[in-house]
Design a protein that fits this description.
Two copies of one chain form a homodimer.
Chain A: H1 4-18, H2 23-30, H3 34-41, H4 49-58, H5 63-81, H6 94-98
Chain lengths: 103, 103
């Protein structure tokens, strides 16, 4: 099963490491505990909407861009792990969101 | 502030209502309590990754598509909430505004 918080954690860690920043730096900027951020990055803890927003702000990435990237990762994992589900015509597809995902 | 769980809740409710289904039907299909689903839809409760996946499955929508849609909604909200606070050089000057002062 694909667990959303693990994909979110992977993306947050990748962003932080791409910026060459430590857990301590980002947790300080986001005003969350180092242990909490570490647990979130490892997919062990669900980030609340407020704390996820704070972490995104600390990483200078919009929440919408983070979720677009998470959506893309999930779509790839879904292709590998599950049969296709119905795709609603009026919903934005993961493909479309990939076009404006993190770059 | 834009709260992710409220955007997720809105999207889940819209999907359910578009399918003409009741809270009872979807909560039963997702094996979550009716009260929990109602709280999630209203943005009062954070859905855990596992329960969000179960709700998506009950609604026959992929988690990636849901998040893509949430990302799009958040991006629109971010644009509205980040109206410029600084005054750029090409904005109305004191002189110009004086010209349309009380007359």
């Amino acid at each position: 099963m694909i667990v959303m918080r693990e994909v979110i954690g992977d993306q947050l860690r990748r962003l932080r490491q791409d910026q060459g920043r430590t857990l301590r730096e980002v947790s300080g900027a986001a005003a969350v505990s180092l242990g909490y951020l570490s647990e979130v990055e490892r997919g062990h803890k669900e980030a609340s909407s407020e704390l996820l927003a704070a972490i995104c702000e600390a990483l200078d990435v919009s929440l919408s861009d983070l979720l677009a990237s998470v959506s893309t990762q999930l779509a790839q994992a879904e292709l590998q792990h599950t049969a296709p589900t119905t795709r609603l015509p009026d919903m934005v597809t993961a493909e479309a969101s990939a076009a404006r995902s993190l770059s």
